[in-house]
Structures are given as structure tokens and as C-alpha cells.
Amino acid sequence: GLLWRDAQLRRFIATRGLLIATALAPPYLLTLAGESGARELGQLGFFVVASALAGMLGGYVWGRLSDKSSRKVLMLSALLAAAVLAATALLGLAAPALLQNGVLAALLLFVLMIAYQGVRLGRATHIVDMAPRDDRAAYTALSNSIIGLLLLAGGLFGLLAELAGPAAVLLVFAAMSALAAVVASGLREEQISEA
């Protein structure tokens, strides 16, 4: 019933559904880098450090902006993800030797994880602020349930990777992220009333 009554909830869930690309993409990015030769243990260290730094810095940067506009955080993080995923895929297709540089691959992962942190903070802030106080738990449960089903279906991207390679999957994820930015632009500014 909530889905039929609340168009903003539908738009939010659609945005969040498209943005599962940011959660599913890191293994494909690492696979693409591995195919290009970035498999040495020292290079794996770059990936771990990049991911940890993104977690620390992303929370600070996106957290402050999310308090002002969770809608803009969702849009900006989606656009950032689209850009880095497209760049990684194109490098994998056109210049795979460049991904042999563990530092470059780690930098791409860092930017992707910064975007992912934005998605996490933006969606958490937005649903809390958009939901009526009495329906907050129902909005969150419904949203999480739908996203859980979509994540289960995300295994189909592994089949695409087998058929067309990880670069093709990253291009699909880039398109999903770009579309998420467009869909998110139609969300209300939920923080205006609190400013």
C-alpha cells in the first residue's frame, strides 16, 4: 500500500535500486585489474588502503553535505560512480596495460568507494527525513526488502561477466549509476523544512 500511495517512496526505491551498482561493482573492478596483471600481494595492499581511506574520508565529506541535502548527495555520488565506472571499463577495454599499475587501480577503487559512501549516507538520511514519523519503520523495512531482492538478482551480473567480461558489467553499472542521478533529481529536498 505504501508504494501505491507515495510516489516519492517509489522514486527513492528506484534510485536506491539503480545504485546497487556501487555495492556490486568493486569485485568486477578488482577482477578487471587482476586480468590486467595487478595480482601481486603488494598491489592488493593498495586496494585495502584505498578502501579504508575512502570509508574514513567519505563519511566526513558526505555526512556534512547530507545534512543539507540528501537528494544532492544521492545525485552527486551517483554521478561520481558513473564517471569512475565508465573510466575503469574504458581503460579495461582500450588500455588494459594501464590497469597493471596497482596505484592507478587502487585510485579508481578509492573514488568508487567514496561514491559508495555517499550512496550509503544519502539514502539513510533521505529515508529517515522523508518518512512520516509513524511510518518510518515501514518505509525502511519495505525499502530494505526490495533492495535485498534486487541484490539477490545481482548474481546475474556474474553471468554477464562470464559472457562479455568484467568491463561490460562495469559499463552497465555506469549506466545504472547515471540513470540513478536522473531519477534522484526528482526527489524532494527533505532537509529544507529542517534548515
Question: What's the arrangement of secondary structure elements?
Answer:
Blueprint: H1 2-5, H2 7-18, H3 20-35, H4 41-68, H5 70-94, H6 102-130, H7 136-153, H8 156-164, H9 166-184
Structure notes:
With 195 residues, the chain is mostly helical. 82% of the residues lie in helices and 0% in strands. The protein is built from 9 helices and no strands. The chain has helices at residues 2-5, 7-18, 20-35, 41-68, 70-94, 102-130, 136-153, 156-164, 166-184. The protein is globular, with a radius of gyration of 17 Å.
Strand pairing plus helix content: what structural class? Answer: mainly alpha
What's the count of strands?
0
Fraction of residues in H or I helices: over 70%
Principal-axis shape equals globular
Query: What would the average pLDDT be, to the nearest integer?
Result: 88
- Order of SSEs, N→C? HHHHHHHHH
What summary fits the major beta sheet? Answer: none
Q: How many DSSP H or I helices?
A: 9
Name the poorly predicted regions: none
- Give the percentage of residues in beta strands: under 5%
End-to-end C-alpha gap: 31 Å
Summary?
The protein has 195 residues and is mainly alpha-helical.
Q: What descriptors fit this protein?
A:
mainly alpha, 195 residues, single chain, 9 helices
